[in-house]
Amino acid sequence: MPTLVSTLSLATRTPARIRRRILPFVFLLYIVAYLDRANVAFAKMPMTADLHFSEAVFGFGAGIFFIGYLLLEIPGALIVERWSARKWMSRILLTWGLTTVLIGFVRTPVQFYSARFLLGAAEAGFFPGIIVYLNHWFTRRDRARAMAGFILGIPISLVLGAPLSALILQLHWFGLAGWRWVFILQGLPAVVLGVVTLFYLTDHPRDARWLDREERDWITAELEAEKQEKRAMGHVSVWQALLQRNVLLLALALCLANTGGYAFVFWLPTIIRNRSSLSVSWATACAALPFGVGIVGLLLGSRSSDRTGERRLHTALPLMMQAVFFMLAGLPGQSFPLVLLWLCLTAVVGYSWPPPFWVLPTATLGESAAAASIGLINAIGNLGGFIGPTVVGYLLSRNFTYTTAILFLSSCFLVAGVLILNVRVRRVVT
Q1: Model confidence pLDDT, tens digit, residues 277-335
Q2: What is the pLDDT of residues 197-217, one digit of tens each?
Q3: How far separated are the first and last CA of the chain, in Å rounded?
Q4: Is 1 a member of any domain?
Q5: 290 occurs within a structural domain
Q6: Is residue 3 part of a domain?
Q7: What is the pTM assigned to this prediction?
Q8: What DSSP designation does 108 have?
Q9: Total structural domains within the chain
Q10: What are the Cα distances from residue 201, in Å, to 24, 84, 320?
């Protein structure tokens, strides 16, 4: 019979061991994943000049990634739930790494569109799959911080990717332009990690040989108790989950937030160059600064959300602030340091809301329905990754100004925040 002291010890050391084992690795995976998704932003200026791509061609090519991503998003999350995270993640890493390398050899718009579409299809299911996987390992009280440890890979990948890409742009090995080497060299790590994943990840706590038996029993019992609590709330089928009001609100809000967010990422180096006298390489490297300070917002937002147990306002208010700061960055007639300040503040609040956002849907549904709802939310949400770049590319190709494009994107952030305020949160979610 476990004593109170031994139970408290287990409650402290078991989550700590799980964090040390899992979070650094999935953090590394997401750094590689997001860099392979977003490195087109760092290659944009020399690539479009070399291949004579218009802003509309670039925007559509950057965005069509998310159409391919949409096709396998929900099945990918369900595969992790019902089959094996380890094997599915390995498959994803191998195929997206090889496809990223392929982008380094495109020469026409159709080839660019096709390669980006295939990259989206290859990576589909990764993000919701990891969220479902983390739900297999972390209890409700630790989930937002676990999500933050994972999502931290986004700004870190961009902080590292901006100066790294700026350096790679200087290469001209074997007669290939530097922008081509950006894709080739940044795609190869995913292939290597695809092999490592097969041997490193463990699907469930019951299979974890790196935990003591009592630690395995403790975390399994804790997670099972949460499952029983969900079951007591009533059975919800997959299709019922897909039609729930909260799920649809979250999906639409994420779509709007991503409409602004991905356009922000894909055009940030170009905006910096447009508002300054920096060279292509220096503007690309300078893009690391907003992403770097965004890390602060991510850590503070997740910590505050976990400490208070509040998720909705921790998501909605930063989205509204993101709208204000990005709108200010788009106003003409400002000095470059002031524009850079607004861009940094946009990133700080922009990275603070994803961890509490992804806690909102996880505790109110049955296991399969939760997995499907996460996949649906992320799938619809990622349509914003297609809409934002495509619309911005169209506007700029039709001689609209960056100010007009930024005002459109800011309005998307604002409406997303309003939608989150209308989500009905049950106490169990926190």
Answers
A1: 888 889 988 989 998 999 899 888 888 888 887 888 999 999 999 999 999 999 988 99
A2: 988 988 888 888 888 888 888
A3: 30
A4: no
A5: yes
A6: no
A7: 0.80
A8: S
A9: 1
A10: 12, 10, 37
